[in-house]
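Researcher: I'm preparing a figure for a lab meeting and need a structural model of a single chain. I don't have an experimental structure, so a prediction will have to do for now. The sequence is pasted below. Please return the structure as tokens so I can convert it later.
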Amino acid sequence: MTPGLSSAYLVRVLTWHTLLLLLLLIGSQIMRVLAPNALLLGGVFMGLNFGLLSVGIRWALSPTASRKRQRVGMALLGLKLLLFLGLVSALFFRMDLDGVSFVVGVSSLLIASVIGTLSSGPSFSST
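Model: Understood. Here is the structure written out token by token.
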């Protein structure tokens, strides 16, 4: 995958994710089913996590990266994982969040990834 293709994919998925979050927020306001603050927090959390992860992996695992850059990049990705797990733990223990709404917000990124992949056109095959 070329850097341009992965950047376009990242933008496409995050755009779909934002649109899905907006639709979910509007739907939750109309139907009064989900807590909008937890829904939005879950979506923003996952979007930020996805963005940082994809940029970190692209930076650390590029074909031209030195061994030192790869090691530092992997250490930073591990630190990001620990920080985000700590943040989620703090959110649930310190704030009164609706877990179902949070998970729906988080899951919207998975749906956005599928839509972003399907909307990218024909896949590249090795034939």
